[in-house]
Amino acid sequence: MAEAIDRHELWANLGMDLETHDVLCSVLPQAFGDVYLSQENRPEGMAFWDMVVADVHGIRPQELVDAQAEGRKVFGTFCTYVPDEVAIACNGIVTGLCGGSQFWVPEGEKYLPADMCPLIKASLGARMGKTCPFFRIADQIVGETTCDGKKKMYEIMAKDVPMHIMELPHQKRPKDVEYFADEIALFGKNVEEVTGVELTEENLHDAIVLINERRKALARVYETRKNADVIPISGTDALLMMQIAFFDDPARCTQMANSLADELEQRIADGVSVFPAGTKRILITGTPMAIPNWKLHHIVETSGAAIVCEENCTGTKFFTNLVDEGPTDFAGMYQALAERYMKINCACFTPNEARIDEVIQLAKDYHVDGVINTNLKFCTTFKTEAPALEKALEDAGIPVLDIETDYTDNDAEQLRTRVGAFIEMLG
Ligand code: SF4
Ligand code: SF4
Known about the structure:
Low-confidence stretches: none
Radius of gyration: 21 Å
Bound molecules: iron/sulfur cluster
Number of domains: 1
Structural class: alpha/beta
Strand content: 5-15%
Shape: globular
Order of helices and strands: HHHHEHEHHHEHEHHHHEHEHHHEHEH
Mean pLDDT: 97
Largest sheet: 4 strands, parallel
Helix content: 40-55%
């Protein structure tokens, strides 16, 4: 691996707390090495994502700062309901900001109750503690009214950085979809103000096509994971690709995912599997796994099973369903965007039974032996719908393990024991 570039000047210019950030920089390579570089027979295409993560607070942040110097604006988001297309249409750049490390949680707890989900605490902690360059770079944060914890966190963050909140309906009736189409139009106004670039029917349509291409490329990678005989990529590697998709340039993400898919398809043709024949296949569902949260994947895949699908926002929810490219006028495109985004089955919706159907369908499509339903501690929406989901899976004859965890390693051994017993039970 090439020698790391010293990024301290970049970080100092962003007003970061260098001393505290250095502590994070000293633990991440070790964590990455333990989880990723210890894997065998990885696809060669993963070298791109390894390179990005090896300099995760350097390569992309430098690109963003360079783009800002040319007058472009950066939008930070926390949710798969926020339509990237609108910001991209006006030459904006979108970067995901969800915090996935325990490192940021104590700082977040200075502002938030301790009994709040770690993703929310880590996200606020990363902003307030000045220890994440992406948070320093974002010109505009785009929040959304999904779960209560995020809504209240945004109020605090809004005192520190410009914030636009999108109102997300919590039902999926036709009038809710129409309402969200109006919200997308309002977001368009915000994007025009921030970027100084006019939103046109042409640039919005181009952005719709661009993001659809990203969805198709990521879906191609997932498609290879459905193969019942060959598992061409570990779940741990697929997760990394998805996590980085949230902040990479969309065209590059499409290109790299497509070339990875080419390699994986060839692996299937050649019978090259990362895991031995007969390895138990697991689908993960539940709360998102923001970078660098690799905890559960690492435990599962070093306990003798393979993860072949993630039904969450750092998985299928990010790319499933395309935006209809047919409409070319504003009203039609806003409606098409709203229809696509409102198909995401998040637990903040009521009812959310479509998620149950989706998980069961995915379990069949990916030929899984068992499902692990994972919940970030204190995420009440996902936790509340867990029993109904798990009962439906059991009724469908699909074994399921329920796990609640956080970003610490305190429960790692206990999880390893439970996951090991579950895999053994799968036979
Ligand atoms: S789990 Fe729900 S609130 Fe969280 S990122 Fe996904 S869609 Fe948004
Ligand atoms: S995991 Fe749950 S509590 Fe945390 S941000 Fe997502 S929906 Fe909200």
